[in-house]
Amino acid sequence: MFPAGGSLPGSRGACFAQIFKRNLPVASEINATHKLCSAPRKHDSNKQGKRFESGPNKPNVKQLIDRYRKGETNATSLLHQLAQCLQFNLEIKETVTTGNLQGFYFAFCVVIDGVEYKTGMGVNKKEARHKASELALEDLIPSLENLKSAIPEDPCRDVPPLLPVKEEPSKSDAHFCRSTNERKSFINLRIPRAVKEQLSRLMSSYPAFSDCSGSTAAFVVQSSSGYEVVALGTGTFGAKDCASSNGRIVHDSHAVVTARRALMRYLYRHLLLFFSKNASLSEKSIFEKNSRGDLLSLKTGITLHLYMNQLPNGAAEIPSKLRLNPLSVSAWHMNNEMSLHVSVGGKVFSVLSSDFDHSACKVISMSATDKITQWQVLGYQGALLSHFIEPIYVQSILIGDSCCGETRGVEVSVSQRVEGITPQLPMHYCQMRPLIGLVSSVAAQQEGSSPETHGLNWSEGDASLEVVDGLEGKTMQE
């Protein structure tokens, strides 16, 4: 939650050009994404080199690279030709020298679609520019050759995409894929079944709140005895009032947030069990001491999973066909879609959006997707429990398929936006990349009906269901 009127830094996280460079679509999609060179295009890269004209006899990418290797063209000219043929934004910009060099040197680096390559240096600008181009091609050419099966022979011609050729996997690869798929399908089958059974038991005891089940989120503990739902929550609203100074208002009642509140109650109970003087009660705790330090950890063989009946709001709701188009506008749109999102009065905004005016808001909460991303780094246990137990992460995030057809947005926003942060974290913390997939929904979405403002939460060991008015942020008893 953010205080009203405060500053909201528009952190974009990792470079999204690099993120989607690793998320290239399959061959047919690459052919559609790489725009054709039928229209001339200008590049703001010091305006060097001859323009690469399109025509029936123009060379393709492979021929251009072969000419460069034979010494028939220089590195700078090849970069300009590739930029026009593959339609990427090219810039060769002046930068600072690296290392402890004696004398005066010029330094340049190549920037392709926002990705900066190694710095080249020389005694004059021409030499430095040429060296920077050579260093960039050392990285770029192998990448193009690795993608030769996905890029058409002549990407500057308007031709139908080639059908991808499926290579025969080796026996070891086939065994690995089969065992992985079997493990994935087994987990996917058991977890939603356990959630559905627990949800049915709760709704049979509280039929008045059955309409709330469409937004269900649940945490499931896997152990040698099977799968057990230990925390469950529902809800789609946030409180409309100002922030409470005494902590008696639930500001965010979205399903995964209320389920996490219930999970924390479950963790506190098991922490008390561990420190119980009764040996039989202490044995029932999910925690144990370990040799890595003073903090407790989950017992060996116990893992945690998260189920959500619908996509979390925020960056996970990225349009399924949105790709990193080199034509900059799409790249800017991608940065906007994948940036920090906030929930205000039932609506979700990117902090980079011009539609978002935080000065007029009473309560601002981080979106559910951004909270999940944070929890996958800091753990789901919260700050206070971090003094007693190691960070707790979920091993898989499963989403109901009734209103969701793919999980690309979740995979990118949760697993890749903070990639590489682990070396900067304290001991015990890491970036946990969960298994993400679609499973059968445990409850149908209520179409046409007004959204249910109540949020429910329950954890294993609770005597009753807690019901929170999402708009007021208070339990029904209050």
Automatic annotation (TrEMBL):
<dbReference type="GO" id="GO:0008251">
    <property type="term" value="F:tRNA-specific adenosine deaminase activity"/>
</dbReference>
<dbReference type="GO" id="GO:0006382">
    <property type="term" value="P:adenosine to inosine editing"/>
</dbReference>
<dbReference type="InterPro" id="IPR014720">
    <property type="entry name" value="dsRBD_dom"/>
</dbReference>
<feature type="compositionally biased region" description="Basic and acidic residues">
    <location>
        <begin position="41"/>
        <end position="53"/>
    </location>
</feature>
<dbReference type="InterPro" id="IPR002466">
    <property type="entry name" value="A_deamin"/>
</dbReference>
<dbReference type="Pfam" id="PF00035">
    <property type="entry name" value="dsrm"/>
</dbReference>
<dbReference type="GO" id="GO:0003725">
    <property type="term" value="F:double-stranded RNA binding"/>
</dbReference>
<feature type="domain" description="A to I editase">
    <location>
        <begin position="231"/>
        <end position="478"/>
    </location>
</feature>
<dbReference type="GO" id="GO:0005730">
    <property type="term" value="C:nucleolus"/>
</dbReference>
<dbReference type="InterPro" id="IPR044455">
    <property type="entry name" value="ADAD1_DSRM"/>
</dbReference>
<dbReference type="Pfam" id="PF02137">
    <property type="entry name" value="A_deamin"/>
</dbReference>
<feature type="region of interest" description="Disordered">
    <location>
        <begin position="37"/>
        <end position="60"/>
    </location>
</feature>
<dbReference type="GO" id="GO:0003726">
    <property type="term" value="F:double-stranded RNA adenosine deaminase activity"/>
</dbReference>
<keyword id="KW-0694">RNA-binding</keyword>
<dbReference type="GO" id="GO:0006396">
    <property type="term" value="P:RNA processing"/>
</dbReference>
<protein>
    <submittedName>
        <fullName>(Atlantic silverside) hypothetical protein</fullName>
    </submittedName>
</protein>
<dbReference type="GO" id="GO:0005737">
    <property type="term" value="C:cytoplasm"/>
</dbReference>
<feature type="domain" description="DRBM">
    <location>
        <begin position="74"/>
        <end position="142"/>
    </location>
</feature>
